[in-house]
Specification:
alpha+beta, SH3 type barrels, 45% helix
Length: 143
């Protein structure tokens, strides 16, 4: 749709002013896009109608954009809710430095990770269990 007759644009503008005022702080959404598209189709010049290919192209572009926005929303939620277990598993075989009950720094390799009662625990090579919250550094083990 390369152009809109000014008479039709004025008619469409008057019907969308109230919507624009309400949504002035938000982006143009799919509902508004479809309303504008339908208004244009309803008010098009019967002697010079919109090309079908152009209409279909616009709908396909809009559909692709909507799918990408949905994918972005889904990925954002996934990243926000990603379990820290994934990070802790990457510590297996690495040295962790942590403060013991006396406040002294200790270093030991991680053998495994446990999860119980909503808490994660690192099981060290010597069998000692340490909360990841007490870890101050993670480093590669020297071989």
């Amino acid at each position: 749709m390369t152009s809109v007759n000014s008479d039709y644009a004025a008619a469409g503008a008057s019907s969308t002013k109230s919507t624009a005022a309400v949504n002035s702080s938000t982006n143009l959404g799919k509902d508004e896009f479809l309303k504008i598209l339908m208004t244009q189709v309803q008010n098009q010049d019967p002697l010079n109608p919109v090309d079908d290919k152009e209409f279909i192209s616009q709908m396909a572009t809009f559909s692709s954009l909507e799918q990408m926005m949905n994918l972005n929303t889904t990925m954002t939620k996934y990243v926000e809710n990603q379990d820290p277990f994934t990070m802790y598993v990457n510590w297996i075989g690495k040295n962790v430095t942590f403060s013991d009950s006396d406040g002294k720094d200790q270093t030991s390799p991680v053998n495994s990770v446990k999860h119980s009662n909503g808490n994660y625990v690192l099981v060290l090579e010597n069998g000692k269990e340490v909360s990841p919250w007490n870890v101050t550094a993670v480093s590669e083990t020297s071989k």
